Amino acid sequence: MAEKKNSKKEKKIKEVKYKSEEQQEITRFIIILVSIFVLVGIVYGVSKIFIKDKETSTDTVTPGSVNPDLVTVGTMFNRPEDEYYVALYDKTIKEAVIYSAIISSYTSEEDALHVYFCDLDNFFNKDYISPDESSNPNAKEMEDLKLGKFTFVKIKNGKIVTYLETKEDMKKELGV
């Protein structure tokens, strides 16, 4: 029996001795490669367990949109219609709701002219607002404009034909 154990040991020793260096290198490479995969798997698993995902931001992003009824003072004279109205007022004032309601009432009529809105609170319109709220009702072109807190104009062929500064005048003009 002792001879059998010794012969088995000799065979193992002979087998080990007879492996070429290339085979040994391949074996080491495979062992290293498997070790790397195991290590990466352990790190990934631990990170998934202990590192929680950050909460997503509660800020919502809304896609931009263009409202074709909004104009600036610089673009109000070049609309596609030949004849239309432009309501120029600061949309943050309390009377803005009243102006908007009057205009909505008018635009619901079948033969109504198009009405554009110009927010005087917009940065691009600040240069046309009169600091002392004295306006120029005789203005016919953009260079002549001096706007108060509310102005309602009718533009025909790129020129101002009607210039109103009160909601009563606007109601009369619109027939509301």
Summarize the structure.
This protein has 176 residues and is α+β, with helices and mostly antiparallel strands. It is 38% helix and 14% strand.
Describe the overall structure.
This protein is an alpha+beta fold and 176 residues long. The protein has a domain at 73-174: 3-Layer(aba) Sandwich (Glutaredoxin), CATH 3.40.30.10. Helix content is 38%, strand content 14%. It is built from four helices and four strands; from the N terminus they run ααβαβββα. Strands 2-1-3-4 form a four-stranded mixed beta sheet. Strand 3 (150-156) and strand 4 (159-164) form a beta hairpin. The longest helix has 30 residues, at 21-50. The radius of gyration is 41 Å and the shape is rod-shaped. The N and C termini lie far apart (120 Å).
CATH homologous superfamily identity of the domain at 73-174: Glutaredoxin
Low-confidence regions: none
What is the string of SSEs from the N terminus onward?
Answer: HHEHEEEH
**Strand order in space, largest sheet:** 2-1-3-4
Report how far apart the termini are. 120 Å
Number of helices: 4
User: Could you tell me the radius of gyration in angstroms?
Assistant: 41 Å
**Overall 3D form:** rod-shaped
Q: Tell me the total number of β-strands.
A: 4
| Largest sheet features | 4 strands, mixed
Percent range for helical residues?
25-40%
Query: What is the CATH architecture term of the domain at 73-174?
Result: 3-Layer(aba) Sandwich
What would you call the quaternary organization?
Answer: single chain
Beta fraction: 5-15%
SS-derived structural category = alpha+beta
Q: Which class of the domain at 73-174 in CATH terms?
A: Alpha Beta
CATH topology of the domain at 73-174: Glutaredoxin
Question: Mean of residue pLDDT?
Answer: 81
